[in-house]
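Final report, closing paragraph on structural work. Over the funding period we assembled a curated collection of sequence-structure pairs, and we close with a single example.
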Amino acid sequence: MPDPIIEVRDYSFSFGRTQVLRNVSVSIDAGEMISVIGPNGAGKSTLLKCLDRILTGGTGTMRVSGRDLNAFTQRELARLMSYVPQADGRQFPFTVREFVTMGRYPHLSPFSSVREEDRLAVDEAMALTGVADFAEREVMTLSGGERQKVYIAAALAQGARILLLDEPTTFLDPHHQDDILRTLLRVNRESRATIVSVTHDINVAAFFSDRVLALRGGQVAFCGPAAELMDNAVLERIYAKRFLFARHPVSGKPVVVPEEVR
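Its predicted structure, as stored:
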């Protein structure tokens, strides 16, 4: 059996005196699509930032492709792993092509020009994410859903085999949420990229993931197949509340439905 592409063992992280992650352990295989869920403040985004070394100073071990995370240079890590932050409304005065091309930075020296292989990587990333048709438009003129796909395209152009995404569908309408999720599924299936994505949507985690990692209070509350998530014995342990379920009209799988509040 091959070694996991990501291995976290007894990892803890604190902001000052506030412990955010507590002895987190998880293994992720290459090509898996993993959702990270949990209440607000559970440590989901912190875990992703520690994996990409945006945050440092935790205790325990993190290994990527069998190598200790701290052994990588920043350029080596960027060639292996990319991070797409939560949308925050920032504006970028670049065309889509220019922005996606910036994702090639781990493969370029400070004064080198863009090579043919870089152009091909950019074209492939834009085609895979469906943004090639507006390659010459400025990023700031795009809708939220279109911008999110551009950010994912830039992460793919980076050449990384692991994508870390922090709430990629936040603030998007249902149409663009579906578009992003289908894009991620296509990326996962066609490029075999490993995707670790934070979400607050339990139904998305259950329907679009191979496995689900749930955090509560900085600790692992659940880690297992997505099919095992839709059970109040599991969800109550994560969210400290019970949920109502209905059957999906097409698949017959259980889905979480809102409670009636009057």
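The chain has a mean pLDDT of 91. The chain has eight helices and twelve strands. We thank the funder for supporting this effort.
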